Fold:
Amino acid sequence: MRRTFELYVDSDAESARIRAEHLGQLMRLTPSLMAANLVAGGLVWLAVGRAGGLLLAGWLGLLLLLLAMGIAGWWTQRGRVRDTASSKSYRRGSWHAALLGLCWGLAAALWFVPAAPAERVLIATLVTGMLGAGAFALAMLPVASLAYTWLIVAGSLVALWRSGEPILLAVAVLLLSYASVVSLAAMALARQSTALLRARFSYARQQQVVSLLLRDFEENASDALWEADAAGRLVHRSARLASLLGTTEERLGDVKLPQWFAARSQQSGPLLAAWALGRPFRDIKLQLGRGEQARWWALSAKPIAAADGTGGGWRGVIADITEAQRFENQLRMHAEQDALTGLANRRNLMNAAQAAMSLGRSGWLLSIDLDHFKGINDSSGHSTGDEVLRVVAGRLLALVEEGDLVGRLGGDEFAMLRLGESPSRAPQAMAALIIDKLSQPIEMGAKRLHVGASVGLARLDPSVANVEDLMVNADLALYDAKRSGRGRSVVYASSLGAASRRMNTVEQALREGLEKRQFELHFQPKVDSQSLQALGVEALMRWEHPVLGSVSPGEFIPAAERCGLIHELGALALQQACLAARELPGLNVAVNVSPLQLMEPGFIDSVERVLVRAGVGPSLLHLEVTESLMLEDAQAALRRLHALRELGVQVALDDFGTGFSSLAYLRAFPFHTLKIDRSFVRSLTEHADARAIVNTIVRMAGVLGMRTVAEGIETERELAVIRAIRCDEVQGYLVARPMPLPKFKDWLAGRPLTGPVDDMDSRVLPWRLTQFSPPTTMFSAEP
Structure:
């Protein structure tokens, strides 16, 4: 619809020209149209006769007035060629057409019914003919065509209705269908005509542009036209050609073009061959000179036949493509080289590995990933991060031997392809050296930055099907190195492939497990170390899969973090734990929170919503975080933890002593509780240094106003030592194993438990543990 009626509203110059064209076509048809209307009006007068009376006279007068207006408009415009026309003139034409349509509609409505059958046929034929002819004649003005058509249809429908004859109902239906088809066809014709005119004007503009460009080319071209005789001697001279060939315009006649190119370019072979065979050639690329002074030309030419049909010479063009070739060379270099570090990029490295595999060569691929690089980017800015990457690239290049290729795969990922036949360093030794060199501090002005590296090694041999598998193997080894604590190297083994497949299986089953509610919280009590009175409970997620069986949290939680489901899993744990807290009055409930979950923008608000819905006080909710939270973005983590404390939620630092926490972190972060890792607890009864460490942690926490919880208490001797050190709370299998909520309630009530609890019965109750007393001499709180 917009394209059909656009000329009635568009005010641009092109639309004005199209309106002028359409009105011009209509103006040329005006005499014929007015004559046809005059003849048709006379036939109506003959058909109606005296029965028409004054009404017929008035109708004829209106028709003659409209015809006179049309002829007058044509007369004043005859011989004039209008370049533009306004939308107002378009609307004027539409009004004139509407009045004509109204006139013919009145004729049908007034005189069809009283007329005799023969006169009815005449009137119907006249009206139908005027409708069809007028609709198409006015098609260039779609509003005029529609108004003219449907005013006649309206009068005809009135006439058919007045007749009251049933058969004429079918005639009315036919009339409406014919009028609809005519109107649609007229609108399509208007669109097509307008589109053709727009295309014609666009072509004319393009022709003008081409003419201007050709004229500009002839005057200011950077290329040069040339013409040579059969011997190759130039016969066409121009200043531009002389400049390109490095000679004067007067001496161009001495230049033989084939010999000139043969002496100056090593790529002139195809040009000389085509010249000798007399075949036309196009865009033969030649390099003249070397280094910074090198120039590139593209030559095109075709032979000129002499009057007798023999070879008469050549005519062609020399195009200076130096800038384009330099840009192409840069693109090619960028396609194979990392722009930031100058190392080979991923594509270049993979091509080299693929070529080596195709030749049956052996070697190693070392996949290198920087540790804690994101922290440098976040704290010091991306420009500093870029400089660190350049320093890392330099250190890697300083280690290469013959046959090594170092590349940057993207971000903070690097790789070294080792294809040397007899390297001085074994692959594992090279990996250890890389880790050592990249662990050395980087001086950036006043800053002293530290990055580390993890390395995954994969062997390039016939057992590897393709380069993609080689990269996957190296990445699997790298992931295992990072999982093992970073700053390490791991050589790929088939067991890593099995672990990867298991990881993929777990990831694929996670979403289905969440949808089918296969996850359940188990609860493990935390008790006072002296009285063994239950103080709180830790909520631990368990997953029993119908096919995979019992999947451990150590497996499905990292998988959820990798595939982006940790937020849904964490939200489920938080909701279930808060609902359970309502059934455990007087006990706080601790929930583990992933760093990814905590750093989610809406996490604090979601915690508040869950507490409100569950009707649980914020002080009863303890969120446990690990030290890895502080490694990526310590400032953002600090803001989130303070927001939780302001909400009233307690925050515990889990697995304390196994990560990278410093006293500065403990002072800055609002921790309520430190949980001593079970690795220290296991060594309490055998190693004095472990007892000294735990004792120091407990005393330090007391100074900082924090409570301490000893995890993994499994024996009475461990409990005795913890009591002597005066750790606040204990948690472990000696007290109780994790269990579903109903069994935990039974445990609290002192009722015997039935059925398995985390694969073992938990039958040790707090009242039994009160019988234990710490030895007075064997275990001392002091080291």
Summary: DSSP finds 28 helices and 20 strands in the chain. Residues 759-783 have pLDDT under 50 and may be disordered. The longest strand covers residues 534-545.
